[in-house]
Specification:
Layout: E1 4-8, H1 12-24, E2 28-32, H2 35-44, E3 49-53, H3 61-69, E4 79-83, H4 88-96, E5 101-104, H5 109-123, E6 132-134, E7 137-140, E8 145-148, E9 151-153, H6 157-168, E10 173-174, H7 176-184, H8 193-206, E11 215-218, E12 222-225
Parallel strand pairs: 1-2, 1-3, 3-4, 4-5
Antiparallel strand pairs: 6-7, 7-8, 8-9, 10-12, 11-12
This protein binds calcium ion (CA).
Calcium ion (CA) binds next to loops.
């Protein structure tokens, strides 16, 4: 699961350079040339992170960020602002509108990658390859293995993704539609009851270890993972 990163930048050579560096680092990168293009792309394929240029034609990066952060659907997408100006004022304004981080141009691809990694680790640990451990339950995204107390739990690909999401988003209730968005992606049309099918399979795989109760049904609301 490569993290999807949207680069909002009107200057094509800069956008291409960033996308090239991101693709080399195994990110799934796509670009937008202005606010309108960005809005459309965010709606089509919600990114895991947005790199937002401050200077955009018509609607500025800061205005667009404010708009995204003000909407229920997009407020959780982290934004790293790119700016040519290193002024403290801008930084304060950026942080005030909810930007997660700030990178001043010119930056090295390496610096940018490091910032992206930190943010993704914080807000979307399910798209990183970090090993996740909850008590004796250990999930390794790189090797696609799950173990409980050293014993392997065999999971199908969807159950694996689901468990990965849950383990990185503990103690929060997710509705079926939210799980579909976050685990299956918003571009696929799947009925909500499919979620129940995969939850059932996941619980069955966890049952021999008596840890199936980690996945809790919250009546009328959805599901919650509790370690
Ligand atoms: Ca620009």
């Amino acid at each position: 699961m490569a993290a999807k990163i949207l680069v909002v930048e009107d200057e094509a050579p800069v956008r291409d350079m960033i996308c090239f560096a991101l693709s080399k680092a195994d990110y799934d990168c796509f670009g937008a040339k202005d606010a309108e293009d960005a809005r459309r792309k965010v709606a089509e394929t919600p990114p895991d992170l947005i790199l937002m240029d401050w200077m955009l034609p018509e609607v500025s990066g800061i205005e667009l960020t404010r708009e995204l952060k003000g909407s229920e659907l997009t407020r959780e997408i982290p934004v790293i602002m790119l700016t040519a100006r290193g002024e403290e004022d801008d930084k304060v304004r950026g942080l005030e509108c909810g930007v997660e981080d700030y990178v001043t141009k010119p930056f090295s691809p390496r610096e940018l990658m490091a910032r992206i990694k930190v943010i993704l680790r914080r807000v979307a640990p399910d798209v990183t390859e970090d090993i996740i451990q909850v008590g004796k339950l250990v999930l390794n995204p790189a090797s696609h293995r799950v173990e409980y107390a050293g014993q392997e739990i065999t999971l199908g690909p969807t159950e694996f993704k689901l468990l990965h999401f849950f383990m990185t988003h503990q103690e929060r209730v997710y509705s079926r539609s939210r799980l579909l968005d976050r685990v299956w992606g918003t571009n696929v049309y799947i009925e909500e009851r499919t979620v129940d099918v995969h939850i059932r399979r996941l619980r069955m795989a966890m049952e021999p270890f008596t840890i199936d109760n980690m996945i809790q049904t919250v009546r009328g609301a959805g599901y919650r993972f509790s370690g």
